[in-house]
Design a protein that fits this description.
The protein has 2 domains: about 1-20 and about 295-330; about 50-285, Jelly Rolls (Sandwich). The protein is about 30% helix and about 15% strand. The chain has 10 helices and 12 strands. A 6-stranded antiparallel β-sheet has the order 1-2-3-10-5-8, with no helix packed on it. Strands 4, 6, 7, 9, 11 and 12 form a 6-stranded antiparallel β-sheet that branches. Strand 1 (about 60-65) and strand 2 form a beta hairpin. It binds 2-acetamido-2-deoxy-beta-D-glucopyranose (NAG). This is Cupin type-1 domain-containing protein. Belongs to the germin family. One of its GO terms (cellular component) is extracellular region. Keywords: Manganese, Membrane, Metal-binding, Secreted, Signal, Transmembrane, Transmembrane helix.
């Protein structure tokens, strides 16, 4: 019942403003249908051309070694038609952006204020390419290559990665590979036991993970367990055989001790991001967030829609009253009332009322002689 009336309110608010209450997916669809850039600009507010990487509502990947924030067409509709996307890496000490590919884009990764160790495997037959990338330099990872970046510093560092596709996509190697059907993983690894596969998979940390042992030692850090919720979900076709229940999905990062403190965020940003976990980004609003509190966005929408509805009611009542008064005054002796005069254009009644029948004049007309 509450949800139904909520959808009604959302529908009304959507009629009032074509952009309010529109899901990012719908907006992207509208932008893709637009005939030109001029039309696309009309579909977006000014501030929708700016993405806030410090307070993202979605696009985050969080792990024990830091986090990344991605702006791609899925969460930043202004990218439609640009062929570009961007990810910012907030790497903690020894933070490690684990091996992955971008199926649709080349990446140009700029080390802002710390040295990164990076490497990639382009394809079968190509050698392994490795680099230490100092601050101020950028590494290029051609489309589709398996690559990684690790912060070698014992301090937080930033990287800025640009992509030449608005939907670059990302495929984490370990998380995906070990999510293949166990017998195929086992065979690909020279027929190791299912037990070992389940055991290995349970350890695959979320991205951004903690880096190499050498770095952790140098920085005086220990790996005391990282969240592992980014593993490939099991469905019937890739299920572990019965008898191997497999490790249960590890808890979300919250409350997990990590060595990396995420940058301070404003309480408002925390409230907003609490409503959208990276794994449930369907562009839908839910009434309650994970902690059971009412979603502040919904409250704001209800207030806005309430005010709008009250305004409409006020206008309609005013209109009815005026109409009743007009009818009264007409029946009260206006002999010259003609049916249809209600529909006469405003200007016509203006001219006849004022007896002003001369040629139209605007402030821009030259004075008549
Ligand atoms: C790099 O920049 C980030 C963001 O300003 C900052 O938090 C971090 O401490 C910097 N790291 C170094 C090594 O300067």
């Amino acid at each position: 019942m509450l949800t139904k009336s909520l959808y009604l309110l959302l529908a009304v608010s959507a009629m009032v403003s074509p952009t309010l209450g529109q899901s990012p997916a719908q907006k992207v669809a509208d932008l893709r249908l637009a005939a030109s850039m001029v039309d696309r600009v009309k579909l977006l507010q000014d501030n929708e051309f700016v993405f806030d990487f410090l307070h993202p509502i979605s696009g985050e990947s969080d792990g024990g070694g830091g986090h990344t924030v991605s702006a791609s067409v899925g969460n930043f509709p202004a990218l439609v038609g640009t062929g570009m996307a961007m990810t910012i890496g907030f790497l903690g000490p020894c933070g490690y952006n684990t091996p992955h590919t971008h199926p649709r884009a080349t990446e140009f990764n700029f080390a802002v204020n710390g040295t990164l160790q990076t490497g990639f495997l382009a394809e079968n037959g190509a050698r392994f390419v490795f680099n230490e990338v100092p601050p101020g330099s950028a590494a290029i990872f051609p489309k589709g290559v398996i690559h990684f970046e690790m912060n070698t510093e014992c301090e937080d560092v930033l990287f800025v990665a640009a992509f030449n596709d608005e939907d670059p996509g990302v495929d984490q190697i370990a998380q995906r590979f070990f999510g293949l059907p166990p017998k195929f993983v086992a065979a690909a690894l020279g027929d190791i036991g299912i037990e070992q596969i389940a055991g290995l998979e349970s350890k695959i940390p979320n991205n951004v993970a903690l880096g190499t042992e050498e770095c952790l030692k140098r920085c005086g850090l220990t790996n005391s367990g990282q969240p592992t919720s980014q593993r490939q979900p099991r469905v019937a076709a890739n299920a572990l055989p019965s008898g191997y229940s497999g490790p249960s999905a590890a808890a979300a990062p919250s409350g997990t001790p990590t060595h990396y403190a995420t940058p301070a965020t404003s309480p408002a940003a925390v409230a907003v991001s609490a409503t959208a976990s990276p794994t449930s980004l369907s562009g839908q609003l839910s009434l309650n967030d994970e902690s059971g509190k009412t979603n502040p966005v919904i409250i704001a929408l209800i207030v806005i829609v309430g005010v709008l509805l009250a305004g409409y009611a006020f206008i309609i009542v005013g209109w009815c009253l005026r109409r009743r008064n007009e009818k009264k005054s007409r029946s009260g002796g206006n002999k010259y009332f003609k049916p249809g005069a209600d529909f006469a254009p405003q200007a016509a009644s203006f001219h006849s009322d004022k007896g002003y029948g001369g040629p139209h004049s605007t402030p821009y007309d030259p004075p008549t002689q």
